[in-house]
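Appendix B, Record 12. Input sequence as logged:
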Amino acid sequence: MGALNCKTLAATFFLVITMVVASTAIGETEFKKVKLLTEISLDVPAQWKLKVHEKSRSFTVEEVAKEKRTLLLAHSLSANAMISVSLWPKKNGLNTKELESMTAERLSKIKGGLAKGLSNSGELKVITIHDPVVMLVSGLPALVTGYLRAGADDPEDTWDVINILIPRPDLDVRISLSWSSKRDDYWSPVMIHVVKSFVTY
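Logged structural output:
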């Protein structure tokens, strides 16, 4: 399975995920492992603010089939980087076999669908849609999509948003990463570490 030869920042970000990342940001950042429901875990910067789904309020696959469940919301103290992990109803989404045989034509259609959906929402000023890629996350095929948007509070700032979809037999696992492009040299290596640490069942 090979990723497309993309020229976007997001593609570059994820194509180096299997490489050794040596960076000042990683050296200065302490991480802690967070264990979530349904046997999911990942490293998150230790100083971040976290909101984790309470284990005492667990839910069944049948409940997830009706509506999405957010397992984790995390953001930096400076609020210029965020991570979320959620479970989504399976419905008619992609499966592992489809991702393993994904073609460039199909990825192009996925990109077009994403662009149309973001345009119809009217909530975000999207600057660029990144080319989707298929890669392995936690040893499983995953669809990676993303876009560059204008900052909500600072019109001169831009944010990269990366969404990772990992299809499972009974539901979909989704990871969302976003950060201010002003600190891309710092946050990109941190986000790469987070994705590399991600483990799902």
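Strands lie at 31-36, 40-45, 49-52, 69-75, 81-88, 126-129, 133-137, 140-150, 158-167, 172-180.
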